[in-house]
């Protein structure tokens, strides 16, 4: 269907107007919201992730593609609810306590959303208590923590300890990332997953559910 190809290409090109008008046109043509999501938007973000991993796209291209996708998802969201399309899972995500960097975290959240997860974004400077409360409130199965400062990395460990103390550690997968974070650090603090960037975060989250 030509309109799905338009949406797909517009997201890859970071053309927000092309993507959103494509979504509106597709809905007007009666194409199912789930088809627009899967064959247009998610397929495009998967391709963007591949281009990033192969070094053809850099962060700016990925950001504008993610924004085009987010604007399109915003149009689709109410229709998807009507059509009862279930998200893959709920992810509570935030930048840890003391840390105000959010560009990378937002990118990861957009990639996860593009893959089909529902995102509960707690923003920046998120205390362990806020993570715990959000997991309970939203009954989330995933927690994503981002840190960009070596001084705020220990907040990830404190948050995992708070999850254990609150009795919710066993029901969530914990993913961590950010420039100073390594797989070794994730192992040290008992996180389940480490991802280096948005595309690998989305891929690893799906793999953890046995979906990829
Ligand atoms: Co700051 N800052 N900053 N800063 N800043 C860094 C991080 C720094 C490396 C710069 C430097 O000195 N070379 C340095 C940290 C040094 C260290 O700790 N080792 C630093 C510092 C020191 C500071 C301040 C302390 C400066 C000061 O005030 N003296 C201060 C701290 C404020 C605070 O947080 N309390 C500060 C402030 C700021 C700004 C507010 C000005 C601004 C942030 C704006 C914002 O985010 N809204 C800022 C910026 C922009 C940067 C740099 C230049 C760029 C960060 C960025 O957005 N990168 C950064 C230098 C650098 O990284 N080159 C720097 C682009 C982004 C897409 O990448 O965030 O790495 P990144 O995210 C990647 C991956 O890491 C990964 O995927 C993302 C997408 O590919 N990822 C995850 C991230 N989170 C993930 C979560 C996951 C999985 C993957 O799972 C959940």
UniProtKB/TrEMBL annotation:
InterPro entries: Cbl-bd_cap, Cobalamin-bd, Cobalamin-bd_sf, Met_Synthase/Corrinoid, Meth_synthase_dom. Gene3D superfamilies: Cobalamin-binding domain, Methionine synthase domain. Keywords: Cobalt, Metal-binding. Residues 88-212 form the B12-binding domain. GO terms for molecular function: cobalamin binding; metal ion binding; methionine synthase activity. SMART domains: B12-binding_2 (SM01018). The keyword Phosphoprotein does not apply. One of its GO terms (biological process) is tetrahydrofolate metabolic process. It comes from the Bacteria. Residues 1-88 form the B12-binding N-terminal domain. One of its GO terms (cellular component) is cytosol. Belongs to the methylamine corrinoid protein family. This is Cobalamin B12-binding domain protein.
């Amino acid at each position: 269907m030509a309109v799905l190809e338009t949406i797909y290409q517009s997201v890859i090109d970071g053309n927000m107007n092309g993507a959103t008008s494509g979504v509106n046109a597709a809905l007007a043509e009666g194409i199912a919201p789930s088809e627009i999501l899967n064959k247009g938007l998610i397929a495009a973000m998967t391709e963007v992730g591949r281009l990033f991993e192969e070094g053809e796209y850099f962060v700016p291209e990925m950001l504008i593609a993610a924004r085009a996708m987010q604007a399109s998802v915003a149009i689709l969201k109410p229709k998807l609810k009507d059509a009862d399309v279930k998200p893959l899972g709920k992810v509570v995500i935030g930048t840890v306590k003391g840390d105000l960097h959010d560009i990378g975290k937002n990118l990861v959240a957009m990639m996860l959303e593009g893959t089909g997860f529902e995102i509960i974004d707690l923003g920046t400077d998120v205390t362990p208590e806020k993570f715990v409360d959000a997991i309970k409130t939203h009954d989330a199965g995933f927690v994503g923590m981002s840190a960009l400062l070596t001084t705020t990395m220990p907040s990830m460990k404190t948050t995992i300890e708070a999850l254990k103390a609150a009795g919710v550690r066993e029901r969530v997968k914990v993913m961590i990332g950010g420039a100073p974070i390594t797989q070794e650090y994730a192992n040290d603090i008992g996180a389940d997953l480490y991802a280096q960037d948005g595309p690998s975060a989305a891929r690893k989250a799906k793999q953890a559910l046995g979906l990829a």
